[in-house]
């Protein structure tokens, strides 16, 4: 089968690509061609005869149309302007996260054999009253433009699927932690920073109070869940293609304690507590408590604890110091 | 103040216009100019020196932009491709209900003094499991393209309002009954037909089983609610500009009984029971039970009963025979 990953050179896109290559296939057949599309892709990004890398602008309809002339069987759509950037640059967020995503759906509609599409949505579609737990039936009332744009595309993927134009699935991703590398423009970036930077002997800024709780999932689990979403049969999903992934509720305090157990006071002292009004205005509206039975019933997986999430990171990215 | 009604020559648009003219103003001031925009407007539609009628295509951005050069203080957006038509003609529904509505928001964003915008959304944003009552927190999972397009614009109006580009309010309209005139392409058109046509001595087709329940509101109440929506202060709405109007749950059977009480067996015998698969595939996914406290708290009104709804119709449109 032919697989395309939009956003294929991003952190999650690369993990997903590698996992697909290791597995060799999905429930519907072996992966013969894997096309990775992103705005820039390092040389020798992934060396595998099945992989082709194409650089381009996801916002350019003709570029996306050109990619899809190969009539892929499966598309992962991870291309996005991240939350902080979409909040600061409204037009760019609308252009990429909404208009270009809608354009992708329209191009998919032209493909004769309807492609399966796995869309990286976000738990940032929720916002507001953080005291009530989110259940599968809770209405998304985003408190960010990023969350709004994701919620819009989820609705459209449901309708395009209902009409038989595509076979879509939207996964609402929790905050992904711990991300390796550098901080990015995601408003949740600090969740990774406060562990990653101290383990590297560097300072990190925590912009929210220590009692703040977040809803997180490890890169390992989310990669499993992306592939699982691609493997589920359409008949299992019924009329709703939206799945809120089963993250874990973790407080900043718990994360700092786990960091202390591993790196001692030296590590925790590297966290600088600097409240940031802009980040708080978004992050503190994300509900950290969920009761999402549907994802578990459908076989999506969850991390066990903050400790496990940090240990997985150390295992994968360590050793440190 | 300057007021624009997109869809101003439609049944609700005209009622709203007349009501505004009778009232003479809103909480924020007198209505000095009332611009009615629609694709076609009869001659001498409303004769009032404050009224200007403009015909045009809501899907044409330049036309809408031209209308908004007057920098209106208040905009009612009732322009839409109705549910049945949007289901049959996907491209047209997307063009008008989604793209042109988004374009309207973008043009509003350019207006220096942010306009108040009242959007006619629909309870068709809900669908699926009709056994559970809809509450204010229930996620819209539309089972029609029309419902999807309305749900998308609601989300965008929330975000455009949050960002201060507009001061928006989205009203989720129940099925409006009883509409005078002719049946239209709305999938709910039969709800009016089964009362209106027999009262006129004509046959009507009921495409759903007699035990079917619907969530309805009278034209009189919905017109009140539109004006009420325009009068509410922004501060009362908080972060969520979406209001599910308080309709009434009425069964087809109840309506037929009320019709019988008024018109006797002669009237009820004019209803032909002809199941329609297409209409049922949409109408029977509309939940008829709601528990929407927020609208009542905000002062929106509800009809008392099926009898009242029919009697209001007879009062306004009769006498019959």
What does this structure look like?
- Two copies of one chain form a homodimer.
- With 321 residues, chain A is an alpha/beta fold.
- The first copy, chain A, has a domain of 200 residues: Rossmann fold (3-Layer(aba) Sandwich).
- Helices cover 40% and strands 19% of the residues of chain A.
- Chain A has eleven helices and 16 strands.
- Chain A has a seven-stranded parallel β-sheet with strand order 5-4-1-6-7-9-13, sandwiched between helices.
- In chain A, strand 2 and strand 3 form a beta hairpin.
- Chain A is globular, with a radius of gyration of 19 Å.
- Chain A starts with a strand and ends with a helix.
- The mean pLDDT of chain A is 95.
What distinguishing features does this structure have?
19% strand; homodimer; Rossmann fold; seven-stranded parallel β-sheet; 321 residues; alpha/beta; 40% helix; 11 helices
| pLDDT < 50 stretches of chain A | none
Spatial strand sequence of the major β-sheet of chain A: 5-4-1-6-7-9-13
Given helix and strand content, the structural type of chain A is alpha/beta
Oligomer description: homodimer
- Percent helix range of chain A: 40-55%
The name of the CATH superfamily of the domain at 2-174 and 218-244 in chain A reads NAD(P)-binding Rossmann-like Domain
Give the helix tally of chain A: 11
Q: SSE order of chain A, as H and E?
A: EHEEEEHEHHEEHEEHEEHEEHEHEHH
Tell me how many strands of chain A there are: 16
Shape of chain A: globular
- By CATH reckoning, the class of the domain at 2-174 and 218-244 in chain A would read Alpha Beta
Mean of residue pLDDT of chain A? Answer: 95
Rg from alpha-carbon coordinates of chain A: 19 Å
Biggest interface and residues each:
A-B, 23 and 24 residues
**Proportion of β residues of chain A?**
15-25%
Which fold name corresponds to the CATH topology of the domain at 2-174 and 218-244 in chain A?
Answer: Rossmann fold
Per CATH, the architecture of the domain at 2-174 and 218-244 in chain A is 3-Layer(aba) Sandwich
Largest pleated sheet of chain A: 7 strands, parallel
């Amino acid at each position: 089968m032919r697989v395309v990953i939009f956003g294929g050179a991003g952190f999650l896109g690369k993990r997903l690509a590698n996992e697909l290559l290791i597995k060799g296939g999905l429930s519907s057949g072996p992966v013969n061609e894997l096309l990775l599309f992103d705005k820039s892709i390092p040389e020798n990004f992934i060396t595998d005869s099945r992989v082709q890398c194409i650089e381009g602008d996801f916002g350019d309809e003709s570029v996306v149309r050109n990619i899809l002339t190969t009539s892929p069987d499966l598309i992962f759509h991870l291309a996005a302007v991240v939350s902080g950037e979409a909040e600061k640059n409204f037009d760019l967020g609308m252009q990429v996260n909404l208009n270009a995503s809608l354009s992708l759906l329209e191009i998919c509609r032209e493909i004769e054999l309807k492609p399966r599409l796995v869309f990286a949505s976000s738990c940032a579609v929720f916002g507001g009253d953080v005291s009530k737990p989110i259940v599968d039936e809770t209405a998304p009332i985003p408190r960010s433009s990023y969350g709004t744009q994701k919620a819009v595309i989820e609705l459209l993927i449901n309708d395009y699927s209902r009409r038989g134009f595509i076979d879509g699935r939207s996964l609402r991703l929790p905050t992904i932690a711990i991300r390796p590398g550098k901080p990015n423009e995601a408003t949740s970036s600090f969740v990774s920073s406060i562990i990653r930077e101290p383990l590297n002997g560097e300072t990190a800024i925590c912009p929210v109070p220590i009692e703040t709780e977040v809803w997180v999932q490890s890169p390992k689990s989310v990669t499993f869940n992306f592939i699982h979403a691609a493997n589920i049969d359409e008949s299992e999903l019924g009329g709703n293609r939206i799945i809120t992934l089963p993250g874990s509720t973790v407080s900043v305090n718990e994360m700092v304690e786990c960091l202390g157990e591993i790196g001692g006071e030296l590590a925790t002292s590297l966290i600088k507590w600097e409240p940031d009004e802009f980040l708080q205005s978004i992050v503190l509206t994300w509900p950290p408590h969920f009761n999402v039975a549907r994802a578990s019933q459908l076989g999506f997986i969850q991390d066990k604890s903050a400790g496990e999430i940090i240990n997985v990171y150390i295992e994968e990215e360590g050793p440190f110091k």
